[in-house]
From TrEMBL:
<dbReference type="GO" id="GO:0008685">
    <property type="term" value="F:2-C-methyl-D-erythritol 2,4-cyclodiphosphate synthase activity"/>
</dbReference>
<feature type="binding site">
    <location>
        <begin position="133"/>
        <end position="136"/>
    </location>
    <ligand>
        <name>4-CDP-2-C-methyl-D-erythritol 2-phosphate</name>
    </ligand>
</feature>
<feature type="domain" description="2-C-methyl-D-erythritol 2,4-cyclodiphosphate synthase">
    <location>
        <begin position="2"/>
        <end position="155"/>
    </location>
</feature>
<comment type="similarity">
    <text>Belongs to the IspF family.</text>
</comment>
<dbReference type="InterPro" id="IPR036571">
    <property type="entry name" value="MECDP_synthase_sf"/>
</dbReference>
<feature type="binding site">
    <location>
        <position position="43"/>
    </location>
    <ligand>
        <name>a divalent metal cation</name>
    </ligand>
</feature>
<comment type="function">
    <text>Involved in the biosynthesis of isopentenyl diphosphate (IPP) and dimethylallyl diphosphate (DMAPP), two major building blocks of isoprenoid compounds. Catalyzes the conversion of 4-diphosphocytidyl-2-C-methyl-D-erythritol 2-phosphate (CDP-ME2P) to 2-C-methyl-D-erythritol 2,4-cyclodiphosphate (ME-CPP) with a corresponding release of cytidine 5-monophosphate (CMP).</text>
</comment>
<feature type="binding site">
    <location>
        <position position="11"/>
    </location>
    <ligand>
        <name>a divalent metal cation</name>
    </ligand>
</feature>
<comment type="subunit">
    <text>Homotrimer.</text>
</comment>
<dbReference type="InterPro" id="IPR020555">
    <property type="entry name" value="MECDP_synthase_CS"/>
</dbReference>
<dbReference type="Pfam" id="PF02542">
    <property type="entry name" value="YgbB"/>
</dbReference>
<feature type="binding site">
    <location>
        <begin position="35"/>
        <end position="36"/>
    </location>
    <ligand>
        <name>4-CDP-2-C-methyl-D-erythritol 2-phosphate</name>
    </ligand>
</feature>
<comment type="pathway">
    <text>Isoprenoid biosynthesis; isopentenyl diphosphate biosynthesis via DXP pathway; isopentenyl diphosphate from 1-deoxy-D-xylulose 5-phosphate: step 4/6.</text>
</comment>
<feature type="binding site">
    <location>
        <begin position="57"/>
        <end position="59"/>
    </location>
    <ligand>
        <name>4-CDP-2-C-methyl-D-erythritol 2-phosphate</name>
    </ligand>
</feature>
<feature type="binding site">
    <location>
        <begin position="62"/>
        <end position="66"/>
    </location>
    <ligand>
        <name>4-CDP-2-C-methyl-D-erythritol 2-phosphate</name>
    </ligand>
</feature>
<protein>
    <recommendedName>
        <fullName>2-C-methyl-D-erythritol 2,4-cyclodiphosphate synthase</fullName>
        <ecNumber>4.6.1.12</ecNumber>
    </recommendedName>
</protein>
<feature type="site" description="Transition state stabilizer">
    <location>
        <position position="35"/>
    </location>
</feature>
Amino acid sequence: MFRIGQGFDVHQLVVGRPLIIGGIEIPHEKGLLGHSDADVLLHTIADACLGAIGEGDIGNHFPDTDDAFKDADSAKLLQHVWQIVKEKGYKLVNADCTIMAQQPKMAPHIQAMQARIAELLETEQENVNVKATTTEKLGFTGRGEGIASQAVVLLQKRNG
Ligand SMILES: Nc1ccn([C@@H]2O[C@H](COP(=O)(O)O)[C@@H](O)[C@H]2O)c(=O)n1
Ligand SMILES: C[C@@]1(CO)OP(=O)(O)OP(=O)(O)OC[C@H]1O
């Protein structure tokens, strides 16, 4: 049996924060604001996984009112979500993601993001695709006020 899930997330870009996307720290004069480390891409993938198995969203599992998740490493949050997916008997078929950011250039970091995400989802790197697009200077992403991300994941029930 197959299950599909999609995720979408947005975080504001501000000075004084590191920019962490896809588990990779990217040199930039601004970073993403959030209760956790605000890794917009890992949040999107976690939401897509939770959506695929009908388990709500990361806000339900890791409330932003809980100090336990203050400055949390989103890789650990995604690992926790992936445990739930595995306990339900699923493995990843593939994940496809898009980052919407006017700046900085994601291209030099895409391979590292794909490798890290594949590691977190216990799959081969070829099963994880990360893309980036500017939004042609339009909207909040185009003005550099924030970064958005979306993802689709396909899961398959393991045999036995
Ligand atoms: N933050 C970004 C945005 C885009 N790219 C890459 O640039 C290419 C052109 O982007 P469009 O806005 O015209 O879609 C595309 O190949 C993106 O991968 C990037 O590296 N970082
Ligand atoms: C990740 C959590 C953890 O407290 O906080 P934020 O970093 O603010 O991120 P968001 O995408 O708003 O998801 C909610 C929370 O689960």
